[in-house]
């Protein structure tokens, strides 16, 4: 039978006692302090089918107590406040926040939490399809225009969120698409998002956008076209002032470039007018595939006199 010998390994035992004594002296000699910290708020056991309406608090203020050494070793994420949402129902809810609901490292005591309650507005979750609205900026190259509306694929996406926010939403939006200086059709995959931060996309994150860039209508001014007199009565003579006008035209680039100025005819109608002075509107003959935007001046002075035998 082996007998216990109290003085076996006496050196190691004395060393252990000495180290323990030194540790006790160093710890017991540290001052106990209290400090205010900001701790992240963690929502656990979130019920399926519920959403938070509005912005939930992300942090709480806590007061902790411990030795100066223990508190100095507290790092980010070591202290976390926890709210258990298990069993929560839709509506405006209050959840108590006590020191027992704050996780902290050994040697650090939580003595107070502010606020003492967490208010959350919980709503039923809803899914709904909304149209996507493209956002364009800039102007195509000179002489080119955006033809029609951009083509989106898909043009609707599903959004998810609190019921009232989903019902209020009217559209999702694309990131800004620049057409600055373009002279060819643009096809591009772009990100989409939602203005309301309480809403999110169910799955779709990008869509394909096609923006058609085509040669735009061109404007041209034909200058010095003579003003002709039409339907002048017999035995009457007329003088027009000014005798020529400038005519503004608009049409496709090909048509406008090929147009002969001699094909532009300006006139005033003197039908039914006798001797006298008149201010009359200048008219133009219709042109194939081009329009008249202006006549300058738009009106002229006409003096009609009789012709003597």
What would you say this structure looks like, in words?
There is one protein chain. The chain is 12% helix and 51% strand. With 309 residues, the protein is mostly beta strands. The strands form 5 sheets. Strands 2, 5, 8, 10, 11, 12, 13, 14 and 15 form a 9-stranded mixed beta sheet that branches. The chain is rod-shaped.
Structure summarized in a few sentences:
This protein is mainly beta and 309 residues long. It is built from four helices and 24 strands.
Look up the CATH topology of the largest domain: RNA Polymerase Alpha Subunit, Chain A, domain 2
Gap between N and C termini? 166 Å
Uncertain stretches of 5 or more adjacent residues = none
Please tell me what the overall shape is: rod-shaped
Structurally, how many domains make up the residues?
3
CATH architecture of the largest domain: Beta Complex
User: How many whole angstroms does the radius of gyration measure?
Assistant: 43 Å
Mean pLDDT, all residues? 89
* Portion in beta strands: over 45%
| Tally of alpha and pi helices | 4
What is the N-to-C succession of helices and strands?
HEEEHEEEEEEEEHEEEEEEEEHEEEEE
- Structural class by secondary-structure content: mainly beta
**Name of the CATH first level of the largest domain:** Mainly Beta
**Largest beta-sheet characterization:** 9 strands, mixed
Total strands? 24
Helix content: 10-25%
